[in-house]
Specification:
- This protein has 215 residues and is mainly alpha-helical.
- The chain has one domain (2-210).
- The protein contains 12 helices and no strands.
- Helix 2 (12-31) packs antiparallel against helix 4 (45-82), helix 2 (12-31) packs across helix 11 (186-204) and helix 7 crosses helix 8.
- The radius of gyration is 19 Å and the shape is globular.
Length: 215
């Protein structure tokens, strides 16, 4: 967390704008589903119900298609900050250059977590922490396959899952404060947390993985 604060010194402005753009774009996807409340005004109840289902399906599909792509861009942006490289807003769209691996990694990660969650809640949480570094791995190694990125994350998180859990817990109070500010505080808390996670990745990553091609 201390390293994150030091890295954000002089970068708070661009990090806040980056977070605002990320939230705005991702929430725009979710707002598509809200249009369904207008359907009953223009069509019968049966037709409106079918239209709501189609709109929900479209929203879910769009969200899943772009979630991994933007997550890769977010990971690249905060790795730039933690490594004292220029923080550029265009990094938000970095994942579109490698959309196949980003999409595959996200789908596989969600599938693995869901399958482990079928056993009990705890295995699902453990799986989520095991694959938490996947997009940082891809940000450093965009040519790596999704399966290899997941494996690399799982390998580097062995013995480090609890450390990441405690890092998340350390931000609980900050998120409460952000909530009390009607959400405005999230524009500062999110960059703080993601930069700290990028610093965590730097500490646990295999040297060969962290030294990948991240152009």
């Amino acid at each position: 967390m201390a390293r994150a604060r030091n890295s954000l010194d002089g970068n708070w402005g661009v990090a806040v704008v980056f977070t605002f753009l990320f939230i705005f774009i991702t929430q725009s996807f979710q707002s598509l589903n809200q249009l369904s409340v207008l359907f009953p005004r223009f069509m019968g109840n049966a037709t409106a119900l079918q239209a709501k289902f189609i709109m929900s399906l479209i929203t879910l599909t769009v969200t899943y298609l772009f979630a991994g792509i933007f997550q890769l861009g977010v990971s690249r942006f905060y790795l730039d900050i933690i490594r004292s490289q220029p923080a550029r807003l265009v990094r938000l769209f970095y994942g579109f250059k490698f959309w196949r691996s980003a999409l595959s990694a996200y789908m596989l990660m969600m599938m693995y977590i869901a399958l482990w969650s079928l056993l009990l809640v705890i295995p699902g949480i453990v799986a989520a922490f095991s694959y938490a570094m996947t997009f940082f791995v891809l940000a450093d190694n965009p040519g790596m396959s999704a399966v290899d990125a997941l494996r690399a994350s799982k390998r580097m998180m062995q013995g480090n899952r609890y450390k990441l859990f405690t890092l998340f817990c350390a931000f609980a109070g900050w998120y409460l404060v952000a909530f009390l500010t009607c959400g405005i505080g999230f524009l500062w808390v999110q960059p703080y947390m993601f930069t700290a996670i990028a610093a965590f990745y730097e500490e646990v990553a295999d040297p060969a993985v962290a030294a990948g091609d991240s152009a």
